[in-house]
Amino acid sequence: MTAIPFLGCSSRTVVSGRPAILGCPLDLTSSYRSGSGAAPAAIRRVSDSIETYSPLLDMDLDDSPFADLGDLLLAGDSLEDALNKIREAVSAILSGGARPLCIGGEHTVTLPIVDAVKKVHPDVVILHLDAHSDLRDEYEGDRLSHATVIRRVDELMGPGRLIQLGIRAGTKEEFSWMKQKGTLMQWGSAADKVLLKRIDGRPVYLTLDIDVLDPACMPATGNPESGGWFYHDLELFFLALNRTELVAADVVELNPGLDTTQVGAITAAKIVRELLLLLGKAT
After folding, report:
1. Residue range 146-163, pLDDT digits in tens
2. Contact, 277 vs 64, CB < 8 A?
3. How far apart are CA 12 and CA 4, in angstroms?
4. CB 121, CB 95: distance < 8 Å
5. Which of 10, 42, 60, 182 has the highest Cβ tally under 10 A?
């Protein structure tokens, strides 16, 4: 059990109808700068530096209870064993009627979370915010890693269930795949209306790799990519998300070892706060 809960949260058990944080400190397939496994603890440590109130959403965590279930113990586990633990833990959260918000860790954690969510919300739409497409069929001989996870998610979900935003890096084959499947969406003027039309009232799962943000405001990630979103773009996205039924989410790929100013962790904590409020509002 994690010693420091997020933003002073006092509940350590699942509450039906409310969000529940679960730390998933997996860092086994990172290909450049490892260290994302330390992110859940780092985000909790800095969370007291932000307010419970969100001016953007005009909602307050003091009025929106949530649970912090701590971190899963994944040290020493194989990738398969770790992903099974994540799947089982998320399934337990959902069985308790709560809405999971998982904090990684590397992006591979998304697959078992989506697998568990799909069983409860079979029509769920996956929103994928990222600098990278993560659509390789294999990477360095492995079919499951941070570079292939969204390809595996798409195979799990079937066609027409994936919407990708912020993508600006990938292989030629990955971009051809996105064009063929129609998953890639540009974010700009009136994009919120297009997004809501594509969601079409279905429940939403959000996977947010923080490298969707430009390195100028988020350098603390393993694979930074220039030309990304700034925080204001993310706020506009959250306002659109506020008009959907968000049923689960994850925030991944913060690397505290590269976060000398702690601005990255504080930004991630603010993102977690907004998502807790959006998940809580869906009740």
Report:
1. 999 999 999 999 999 999
2. yes
3. 11
4. no
5. 42
The structure's pTM equals 0.96
Provide the token pair at 38: 């330390």
CA distances to 147, 152, 169, 218 from 136, rounded to whole Å, are 6, 9, 12, 24
Q: Tokens 């393993």 identify what position?
A: 222
Cα distances from 254 to residues 36, 142, 186, 280, in angstroms, run: 5, 23, 24, 24
Cis peptide before 105 (omega within 30 of 0): yes
Listed in sequence order, the residues at least 6 apart from 87 whose beta carbon sits closer than 8 Å to its beta carbon are 112, 113, 115, 116
Over residues 107-144, the pLDDT tens digits come to 999 999 999 999 999 999 999 999 999 999 999 888 89
CB 265 within 8 Å of CB 45: yes
SS3 content of the chain, % helix, strand, coil (to 5): 40, 20, 40
Q: Which residues pair with 164 in a beta bridge?
A: 128, 184
